[in-house]
Structures are given as structure tokens and as C-alpha cells.
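Please, structure for the following, as C-alpha cells.
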Amino acid sequence: MNIREQIENREKNNLSKYATLSEKSLGRDVYEKECEIRTCFSRDRDRIIHSKSFRRLKHKTQVFLRPEGDHYRTRLTHTLEVSQIAKTISKALCLNDDLVEAIALGHDLGHTPFGHTGERVLNRLLKNGFEHCEQSLRIVEKLEKNGKGLNLTKEVRDGILNHRTKGNPFTIEGKVVRISDKIAYINHDIDDAISAKIILNEDIPIEICKVLGYTVHDRINTLIIDLVENSKDSPHIKQSNEVKEAMDDLRKWLFTHLYTNNIAKKEEKKAEKLIEMLYEYYSQNLDLLPQEYICLIDKNENVSQVVADYIAGMTDDYAVNQFNSIFIPKGWEY
């Protein structure tokens, strides 16, 4: 019996009856020989961590566009925080940590530069629309490794696709990541907004604080403990009615006081125009796309989608640099 098989045996003996066992995975689209040391889900986690798309997350917007302070969240730090929260819940419920971590680390790979601002622009420009969760799946299935994709298991790909609120992952681990994403961004966006002096902690409605807590730490702790207590020995991930209502109210309050705040979002119109102009430029100059994207077009991939693939993969800084290189005149050099 090799090490992987020993780990799989430990899963059978120690995990919840509702957990997804590695040896019961629905597998990959392209057959691969199993690793002697790692389970299929831990291999998926490693592939995501070593991908180019994962590394680019460190220079992509979470809420504040290209913040100058060192301590504001980026899409990468958000991803790591989602993973941490999801693993805490997973361990408490005796679920498959490797599957949870793989889904969490891959869930936001498809985010555009400038966060949801870039996503809205591409959604408007593409005939079939654009959603970052679908783009995340496209990245791991087709775009990574020069068009080969990462060949991840079906469970991980399903969790990545369905991490949004309206999604419905078929594994309980995917459901853990979906709620962990919301717990993370609500509370960490508040933390960043307080640092930016957009809001004060005292601004949060007292009715919400009485239920969830008065600090970021206390709110995250309350949400995790409530989720674990209500989901034990259950095939479902559930919150108490009181806590769920308070979290929903906090999310609605954030949309009014942060996500649509004029100060926090004052640069978004510029970012929208930048994305739109880059999209139009590369749509008219396909030969200037990197070779890996030209190869996709040669394989009869939809041209508009491929242009969107290139732009969606850009970091904030790279998008700005490309815009400057294309549209901003340079000074004369002799």
C-alpha cells in the first residue's frame, strides 16, 4: 500500500459520512495515472497554486483599485483568506480539506483587472456575457498550460464554477467554499474600508453588531461557529435564521455604504473606459495578441472570447501599462 492509499484509508475512517472521499472522485476528463503520494484533490490544489493565473492574483483588485497602501486586500489575499475560513469549517465538520482548499484557491482565477468593474465591462461587450466564475473554469479547463488546461477533477471544477451565491455545488465541500467566500469578503472589505476611512466601525448598524459582533474578528468567529453548530451531522451547510439574516443585512448595508460609495469608486469610470478601449484595440489587431491566444483563434475559438481571455488575465498594472503603451504618446527620443 503506497502513501496515497494510506491517506485514502484515513479519509474513509476519519471523515464524515457526508464528506467527499478522494478515492470516490468522479475523476478527470483526461485519464492520468494516480500519484503514489498525493490524493487527486491535493494534486489539484498543487496545480492551481503553481499556475500563472494564481500568481497574477497578487496584482488584481479586490475592492480598492490599485491601492497604494501595503495592507489592503488584493484578489490573492482574499483567496487565501477564503481558503483559511473554509478549511477551519471543513476541519470542524470532518470534511475533505484537500478538496475544500483546491476549490477555494481556484475560485477567483477568472477575475478581471479592476475587480468587478472589469467584469461588468466584458459582460457588456461580449455577446454571450462574461462572468468571472465561468472564466475561472475556462482557465483551468482550457487556458492554462498554453491551451492544455490543468485537467482538474470534476469535483474541483464544479466547486469553482458554483462558488457564487446563486451556485449550487454538488459536493458539501463546494458548499463550504461558497459560504466562506461571502464570510471573507464581507468582513475583510469592511476592514479595508475602515483603514481607508470610508466608513467607521461605529457606522455598522447596532442591530447587526448585537448578533454578529462589534469587530471584524468577532463577526468572523460568530459566523464560523454558527455555521459549524448548525451543520454538524448534516449533508447541508446551514446557518441559524438569526445569523443568516444579520449577515444578509450586513451585505446589503455594504452595497450602500462601500460598494457604491463615490469616494471608494471614484476611479471606476476610468477603469471601465480603459478595459473597453483595450478590448476594441485588440479586437481590431488580433496579430498583436500573444501567441498562445492566437493559437486559440487558429483552433476556431470565438475571437471575442479570446480577446476577453487576454484582457481578463491582465493584472491591474499590466492593463494600465498596455493602455499607456498603446494610447499615450511618448516623448521624442533621439
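Residues 3-259 form a domain with the Hypothetical protein af1432 fold (CATH 1.10.3210.10). The mean pLDDT is 95.
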